[in-house]
Structure prediction request, 306 residues.
Amino acid sequence: MNWHLIADVVAGVLLLAGALLSLLAAVGLLRFPDLLARMHAGAKPQVLGLLLILVAVGLRLRSLHDIGLLLVIGLAQLLIVPVAAHMVGRSAYRTGEVERDDLLTDELSPAVDESGDD
Amino acid sequence: MSAESVAGPRRHRFRWPSVLVLTAVWVLLWGELSVANVVSGLAVASVVFAVFPLPPVAFGGRIRPIGLARLLGRFAADLAVASVEVAVLALRTGRRPTSAVIQVDLRSDSDLYLVLTAELLTLLPGSIVIETRRSTSTLFVHLLDVRNEADIERTRRQALEQEARVMHALASSAELDAYRRASEGANG
Prediction:
């Protein structure tokens, strides 16, 4: 049993899966109708795609300090992407970039209108 | 050592754990554990926290291994499901996905758990947090591809379950008791 070969094969599979998810995230960015829908594409498949690629790189490099660096990148993504999506979504909603009439339910509108800012 | 002098009791905003974490990141970025890297990391971290002081975040909880394992395991599964869902939606032709924005009143009143729940919700299937109200621990969540009221109520329930998982992973017994009372009050 050759562990290096197995690690390489797994890394290859993860790399392809990560690349595919990133591609589909890009397709979503192009095809979704409005900004908030696009943020979903920018957040979920993009983050998982990158995480899979980081794991693949880690399996291929197999050195401790490279893996440490990959961990930092992965954790930073998990923390920063939701915050970025939040900030973009928040300002889009408040500046009227979101078609509120297209929403099935909108429970934020009254809250924003009454309080202005928080 | 400059790092020690700024850490004196008079600088109450200065917090060692944050500095140590930032130093660890610095050392990882350089890729080598050496005296020079640690010292320069401490210096940079001290300057960063002196120039950009953060508001204090109270963590009065304790880490519960089983709850934490459940939180992380469930999160990994949810992230995979969410990614595939959005990817499939991106490829689907025909009907445009309908969205909704809903309000979720969380039961805990801690900033930390509010932030963690919001962060995780954005990576979960169907939801993105677009507005938070700290005073009432309220999240406003954008939902992608909802068809009817039942979908909306299901997502609202999922958001509260996410908060419950965060609480069971990190909260102290007292926080958990207060949280349970708040949940019972909200349900009953």
Remarks:
- Chain A touches chain B through 48 residues (CB under 8 Å).
